Amino acid sequence: MKGFYQFDADDAKRFAQEQGIGTRRHGDELRFSTCPYCGNRTDDKNTFSINLRTGQFKCLRSSCGATGNMITLSKDFNFSLGTEVDEYYNRQRRFRNMAQFPRPEVRDPAVIYLEGRGISRRICEKYSITTQKEHPNILVFPFFDEDGKMQFVKYRKTDFDKKKDKAKEWCEANCKPILFGMDQCDPEKNKTLVLTEGQIDSLSVAEAFNGEVNVVSVPTGAKGFTWVPYCWDWLGKFETLVVFGDHENGHITLLEEMKTRFHGVVRHVRPEDYKGCKDANELLLDAGPAAVVSAVMNSVIVEHPRIKKLAEVKRRSTADMEKISSGFQRLDRLIGGFFFGQLIVLTGERGYGKSTLGSQFMTYAVEQNCTVFYYSGELMDWFVQDWFDKQIAGSDYINCLESNLGYKNYVVNGDKLQRIHSWYDDRVFLFDNAILQGEETGTLLETVRTAIKQYGCRVIMLDNLMTAIEDTLDSDLYRQQSNFVRELAEMAKAYEVLIFLVVHPRKAGLTRFSNDDVMGSSNITNLADVILRYTKPSQGDDDPEPRPARVLQVTKNRLNGRIDPDGIPTWYEESSKRISESPADFSWELSWNSDFEDVPEEDLGDIPF
After folding, report:
1. Contact at 8 Å (CB) between 358 and 365?
2. Could you tell me where the DSSP H helices lie in 20-94?
């Protein structure tokens, strides 16, 4: 079985950041400017580095010689690799040491109740199910580990009334969470383990198999996986896991999590074998023990949704793929335009104009009859609108108002503004970030999905990543970023939409830029189809005159591999906020003006009233 922790290169980068140590990447190595152990600078000799494929590290200085991996760094520097990983390797939590009495006496009220659920006295005694001595209506489930030591206790009120009772089930406080039924399993005899959600369900499976089965249930329901660090090694003794979770609304509980957590073969009960029942106990009562046995024995291997036959793939050509123009001829020639289904990452130093460029991409998308959705975590809605209006209008329809202090303010002609708004009225939607957090509005990803499915938005602009995700400032921030961007990439392909994501670089003023310099998880650039960097041009004697304000670099292009690290020169017009490939041409016409031509007064006809 694989180790509990799987190395992630982001953890190495995050470790360096938390230690305040500078790094640079060289091939598969992340080289540190200072060794975290001996404190000596390593800039010239590169004596300390972490391998970004394996997570192994070593200090080559003979006086230090520190070696290990990310687990070593986690222990030596109190560096968190996530709650579950920390708990598995460091065992920081303290659980109560439960008194180890003889196995509890099985009481008749427990037997009578469970017999009513189709479970015999023999199974009750095998699993030591009883009731509280003073409260015969409270069922007691003792959890014993593989050594027979009681670690956890769960209670169930057999006469639960939701009108007067606070809870139907509860647990003893501060107990180590483990799986129910571990002590009754024999991985040496049988390498298959059945996993259910509830204790009565696992007892039902045991009943159906006359006790000759390895079956366990989780301690705290379908969403509680606190048991994993404490049962991981034991779980590794099994080769096959059969998930027999609750079946509701076409979904089997526990299955999604266990597909990723269990490293052996994962199987699940077929939906049709539930026979309309919710769980194993209902199936036992309605269809009998044979149906439960059949459900387990006929379980099927989880089909991987991402595996398909190459021969069955629908043939496509880039010439046939739907796309839109970027508005920049050189960029379109290089990358072929923006293709639907792509995730475009737009990066560049703060204040260099990424938002302005992104806004202009949106104006061209609207011009090409696309409905767009815009999210800005930093700009107010009226600010986004003002920039958008100016870029659409162009300087010919913008007036300059100069105050007595000499300040120039540019405004779109009032008679044109209404036309512009009518032109994009039902084609541009904006995320309303004026709504307070905590109100029932759903996550940003849910909102984007709604914009796509309900409003028909085909081009999405998210400005920017650091405000888009819910930053909880915990150790899993990079994983949050990675998961967020992965969902965006999957959404772009699933719905065949075009998504732009603005991401800041790690540092400003980089003379040599690589995709690894994008801030956040390295998976961001791995998942992107195209990476555009909008930055200031480097100094040079052969610069064109006048000197461009910015250059637009293509540093990744998955579709055809063509990149342009030198960049496309661009110029900026302050009044219209427009960005152009030519220092003399900012006057392109968009169809809002031709769509709303003035009608001569004499052609209006008679007023019909």
Report:
1. no
2. 70-76, 83-90
So where are the chain's domains? 9-80, 108-301, 323-595
Structure token digits, residue 193: 């383990």
Report the distance separating Cα 194 and Cα 245, nearest Å: 10
Mean pLDDT across the chain, nearest whole number? Answer: 87
Please give the CATH architecture assigned to the domain spanning 9-80.
Alpha-Beta Complex (3.90)
pLDDT digits (tens, 9 = 90+) for 561-599: 999 988 999 999 999 999 999 999 999 999 998 754 444
Opening angle at CA 260, ends 444 and 449, nearest 5: 20
Rounded distance, CA 394 to CA 185, Å?
A: 75
Model confidence at 436: pLDDT above 80:
no
Fold (topology level) of 323-595: Rossmann fold (3.40.50)
User: Of 442, 458, 525, which is closest to residue 491 (Cα–Cα)?
Assistant: 458
Coil/strand/helix, residue 495: helix
User: What are the tokens at 438?
Assistant: 């905590």
Give 317-351 pLDDT, tens digit per residue: 777 889 999 999 999 999 999 999 999 999 988 88
DSSP string, 352-378: SSHHHHHHHHHHHHHHTT--EEEEESS
- Please tell me the CATH code under which domain 108-301 is placed: 3.40.1360.10
Q: Looking at this protein, which amino acid is placed at residue 367?
A: E
pLDDT tens figures, 80-95: 888 888 888 877 677 8
Neighbouring-strand partners of residue 430? 374
**Strand intervals (E) in 453-548:** 459-463, 498-503, 530-535
The sheet that has 240-244: what strands, in order across it? 215-217, 192-196, 240-244, 265-268, 300-301
CA dihedral sign of residues 425, 427, 428, 429: positive
